[in-house]
């Protein structure tokens, strides 16, 4: 069976000499259906001839209509060269906005461009470029994250030609100001003379690599023969990187490497975010950008990573005969098995889908669009999202570089399965609840392998989602001990050491299974009581952290459910 089937051909306006450079998704008119936005670049003049920024509105089934002329309330935007585009809610109204970095014309004399911002307003997009720092810069990369934990998304822009890195803090309404005082000293010795120069970074990532609740800053290196290394700066816990000591990330085996994209991905299931980096070669202008390569770095904790690319995704490091690089990396669970797959977007050589084997190892499944419809021109760009609402990621690809419009392919894989049934993906902090239909009891687990095993192998267990959270570290932490009752098939959970010892010594029908998770011995900020009931009809226990459910059980099942009070406290 084919993994994808073509649903629709989407026509496009003709912009002679321009090809589609990026496709990003979002709900721009707030109708609940996913749309997509596409940028173009003029092939011959590298951006000197502008083209429209195009938005296609979705119908929720996989169909799209070019609505550019009606959606932009302040007039259709025309762009030159947009190396990176970000779709996110910048003005905190719950509707997607568009941030497009502008490189200007990508050839000498490299005069630069003014970044652009389009904010949602009553079902339209309004040009709010005046809300951004003003000035022509050679903008090349950008990333988004809440740097200061104020609930609003900030932007980090990376520019070439010694224009440096600019952290722009959001006031919550889509108004951005440069925050130079929050940045470290990003200068390097001048290789051509005295003094120091601003270092160049081609890309970045705002990712919480140490799971402390604050996003950290990764700066992608530019041609490391000139000292451009990829660096990690840890957030100090107040939103500042000013005094952070740079941690060098492992280099790839690509000569004069240039990092083009940085994405978080879970490769080994340890809850620490690993990294996938798009890398190409530097060097002379006639030779650079000829190597499409993805580096995989595994997080060791404390901001340190090891390079496991060779083992996890074997690929050529040789230069191609023509220009080729991965414009972007999308982390997508295509088959909804709970493990991150990858879409590598290469407009020049064709994009590719990599499926995860469940252990963080990848093989190239097929190229796009050739793997979808043999005989199509290879030049295409792609993006993945669930366009028809069936829970499975679909594809939008440009046809022949976008000259032939777009095509929509719907996912035909038999998912979701296993961990893939968990909306939003597996949460390492969650305790999940199952209902055992055979015994009428509930089972709780926060162990990833155990949760997956139950989902895959025990159809008699109904998945009820996340019940509560594991306790965060503090002085009130206690171990939750788990027992299995071999007679009833139910589980008992307790933090009471005296009760646990009594069960071990006097109740042979109970098997001790070890520490299930940790909880609080007393109520602390962010925690709630976990209530315990004893079912006198089945001789089993029931637990809930939901006060409404607790009250319902006490009233409606008073004849059989004996309320035993608060068992312990859990996070919510």
C-alpha termini separation: 42 Å
Describe the global form: globular
User: Helicity range of the residues?
Assistant: under 10%
Average pLDDT confidence is 93
Indicate the radius of gyration in whole angstroms: 26 Å
Oligomer: single chain
How many E strands?
A: 41
Summed up, the domain count is 2
CATH superfamily of the largest domain: YVTN repeat-like/Quinoprotein amine dehydrogenase
What descriptors fit this protein?
mainly beta, Methylamine Dehydrogenase, Chain H, 2 domains, 4-stranded antiparallel sheet, 5 helices, globular
Report on the architecture of this protein:
It is a single chain. The longest helix is centred in the last third of the chain and has 10 residues, at 448-457. The chain folds into two domains: 4-418, YVTN repeat-like/Quinoprotein amine dehydrogenase (Methylamine Dehydrogenase, Chain H, 7 Propeller); 467-571, no CATH class. The protein is mainly beta. The two termini are 42 Å apart. It contains five helices and 41 strands. InterPro entries: DUF5648 (IPR043708), FG-GAP (IPR013517), Integrin_alpha_N (IPR028994).
């Amino acid at each position: 069976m084919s993994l994808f089937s073509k649903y629709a051909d989407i026509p496009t306006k003709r912009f002679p000499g321009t090809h589609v450079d990026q496709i990003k998704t979002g709900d721009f008119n707030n109708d609940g259906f996913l749309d997509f936005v596409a940028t173009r670049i003029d092939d011959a003049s590298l951006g000197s001839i502008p083209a429209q920024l195009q938005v296609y509105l979705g119908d929720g089934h996989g169909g799209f209509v070019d609505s550019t002329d009606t959606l932009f309330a302040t007039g259709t935007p025309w762009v030159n060269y947009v190396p990176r585009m970000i779709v996110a809610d910048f003005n905190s109204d719950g509707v997607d906005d568009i941030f497009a970095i502008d490189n200007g014309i990508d050839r000498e004399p490299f005069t630069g461009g003014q970044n652009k911002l389009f904010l949602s307003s009553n079902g339209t997009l309004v040009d709010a470029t005046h809300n951004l720092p003003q000035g022509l810069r050679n903008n090349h990369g950008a990333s988004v994250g809440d740097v200061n934990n104020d609930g609003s998304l900030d932007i980090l822009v990376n520019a070439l030609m010694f224009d440096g890195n600019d952290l722009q803090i959001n006031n919550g309404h889509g108004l951005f100001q440069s925050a130079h005082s929050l940045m470290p000293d990003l200068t390097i010795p001048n290789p051509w003379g005295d003094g120091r120069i601003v270092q160049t970074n081609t890309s970045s990532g705002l990712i919480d690599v140490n799971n402390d609740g604050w996003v950290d800053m990764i700066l992608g290196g530019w041609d490391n023969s000139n000292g451009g290394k990829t660096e990690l700066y840890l957030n100090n816990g107040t939103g500042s990187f000013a005094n952070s000591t740079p941690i060098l990330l492992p280099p790839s085996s690509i000569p004069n490497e240039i990092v083009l994209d940085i994405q978080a991905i879970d490769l080994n299931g340890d809850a620490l975010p690993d990294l996938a980096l798009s890398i190409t070669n530097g060097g002379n202008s006639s030779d650079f950008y000829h190597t499409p390569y993805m580096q995989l770095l595994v997080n060791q904790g404390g901001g340190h990573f090891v390079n496991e690319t060779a083992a996890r995704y074997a690929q050529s490091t040789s230069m191609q005969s023509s220009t080729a690089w991965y414009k972007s990396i999308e982390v997508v669970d295509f088959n909804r098995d709970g493990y991150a797959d990858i879409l590598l977007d290469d407009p020049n050589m064709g994009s590719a889908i990599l499926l995860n084997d469940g252990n963080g190892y990848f093989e190239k499944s097929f190229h796009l669009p050739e793997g979808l419809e043999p005989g199509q021109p290879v030049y295409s760009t792609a993006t993945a999202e669930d366009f028809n609402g069936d829970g499975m990621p679909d594809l939008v690809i440009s046809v022949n570089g976008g000259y032939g419009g777009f095509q929509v392919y719907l996912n035909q894989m038999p998912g979701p399965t296993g961990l893939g049934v968990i909306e939003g993906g597996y949460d390492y902090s969650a305790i999940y609840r199952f209902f055992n239909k055979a015994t009428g009891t509930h089972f709780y687990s926060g162990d990833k392998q155990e949760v997956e095993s139950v989902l895959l192998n025990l159809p008699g267990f109904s998945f009820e989602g996340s019940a509560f959270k594991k306790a965060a570290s503090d002085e009130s932490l206690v171990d939750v001990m788990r027992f299995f009752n071999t007679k009833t098939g139910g589980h008992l959970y307790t933090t009471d050491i005296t009760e646990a010892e009594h069960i071990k010594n006097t109740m042979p029908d109970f098997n001790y299974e070890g520490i299930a998770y940790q909880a609080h011995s007393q109520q602390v900020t962010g925690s709630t009581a976990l209530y315990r009931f004893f079912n006198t009809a089945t001789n089993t226990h029931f637990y809930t952290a939901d006060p409404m459910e607790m009250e319902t059980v006490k009233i409606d099942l008073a004849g059989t459910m004996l309320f035993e009070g608060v068992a312990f406290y859990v996070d919510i």
